[in-house]
Amino acid sequence: MRAEIICIGTELLMGEILNTNAKYISEKLQEVGIDLLYQTTVGDNETRILECLDIAFNRVDLVITTGGLGPTIDDRTKEVVSKYYGKKLVLNETYYNRISEKYNERGYKLVEGAKKEASIMEDSFILDNNVGLAPGFIYENNEKKIIVLPGPPKEMESMMSEGVMPYLKVESDEILMSRIIEITGVPEGQIDEDLKEYFTMSNPTVAPYAKEKSIHIRVAIKGKKLESENLEIKLNELINEIKGRYPSAKILD
Questions:
Q1: What count of other Cβ atoms lies within 10 Å of the Cβ of residue 241?
Q2: Is 206 helix (H, G, I), strand (E, B) or coil?
Q3: How many CB atoms lie under 10 A from the CB of residue 250?
Q4: Measuring CA to CA, which residue among 65, 71, 67 is closest to residue 110?
Q5: How far is Cα 1 from Cα 81, in angstroms, rounded to an integer?
């Protein structure tokens, strides 16, 4: 399965907020063997969000969005996704009552935007928000899937781990295993020369990247879940082969 993350929010484009959501989701997708091919960031603009959705679904099978599920005018994600599919937003009474209770507890007047915040797209599967107010949802259409998540990291991470990951583990029959080899005291150019035959491999893959005081070599292998034992054997064999060239190298967890 091929995936794209679309992070929605003008504050992200302006650099006002650090985009930690993309990093978290990327790591989670690796756990279930889903190939993340693209990451896109777009502002709170209906036309541009629609354009991003159209581009994404022409090149991947799964789109995950974050942000834009709140009660304000610039929170547009649910409306835009619904428009993209020609669907309506449906008020979820459970979440609307929860929002009403929160407003009452704080002595605030319930705003009109609360209805939008408590709504999800019709015919979609709701994702519970156990640490916030806005629910997310999953929708499948013509073997393509979209997962709509909130922007606040705590809410997104909770929803991802409790709702999305169980769903993706069922949907994906593949697994990705990876390890990091840390090499110190050897120039990056020398490592590139020593391991160049490994860097052209397709599966497993071997890829270097420079850190401040060392070079990290990421070794990864992908395959079917049923083959996990064999995959792990092959991965370890390759790691030991590379490590044999650098006896002082460390295997990081």
A1: 11
A2: strand
A3: 12
A4: 71
A5: 21
